[in-house]
Design brief:
Helix content is 78%, strand content 0%. The protein is mostly helical. The two termini are 36 Å apart. The mean pLDDT is 87.
């Protein structure tokens, strides 16, 4: 309903900027993605990117999110090459404009998971290590973001067959998350999954 209301105000009343239109299209693409209509989500997301085609400091955060989402849609549709290109574009924008937000953590984790899924374990490890360093410098080694990335490292080492190292990362993640979250929190249940 919210998307339809936004659509009405933008289309019928001419209210809204290019950013508003890009966000509206992003929301529409997200709805298609949730409905497993991946090709439609990709088509809509590409349209959204046209409204953020000229990336600058004012729209860099939006553009990086749009590319990251497009990468996720390609991944869901098993278009690996396109997924990689879109996610790398999102990462490049983040690096160029030094964007830091919780969205960045999701982008980092999603791109790392993509690298793992595509079998590029060495690149995934480098990616996670750089992310851990960034979070330690900007937040803390005791933040939930740091803990989640430690769990991702545990997953990576487990996939590599390095179970002793994997366990170390999982235990560090559990310790951090145990300090932050209540004992029955869903993320604590997922540390070893």
């Amino acid at each position: 309903e919210i998307v339809q209301e936004m659509d009405y105000w933008i289309r019928e009343n001419g209210i809204g900027t290019d950013k508003d239109i890009a966000l509206l299209l992003d929301y529409r693409a997200s709805l298609c993605y949730m409905g497993k209509q991946y090709k439609k989500a990709i088509k809509i997301q590409k349209k959204a990117l046209k409204y953020a085609a000229s990336v600058d400091a004012r729209n860099a955060h939006l553009a990086s999110n749009l590319y990251a989402n497009l990468g996720s849609y390609y991944l869901a549709d098993k278009q690996m090459k396109e997924a990689k290109e879109s996610m790398e574009q999102a990462v490049a924008i983040v690096k160029k404009y030094r964007i830091y937000s919780h969205d960045l953590i999701m982008l980092i984790r999603n791109y790392g998971a993509f690298l793992q899924m595509s079998g590029d374990l060495k690149a995934a490890g480098k990616h996670y290590q750089a992310a851990l360093k960034m979070i330690a410098g900007s937040q803390s080694r005791k933040s939930s973001d740091y803990g989640l990335l430690l769990a991702d490292m545990g997953s990576l080492y487990g996939q590599c067959g390095k179970l002793v190292e994997a366990e170390k990362y999982y235990l560090q993640a559990e310790k951090i998350m145990g300090m932050i979250l209540p004992p029955d929190h869903v993320q604590l249940k997922g540390v070893y999954s």
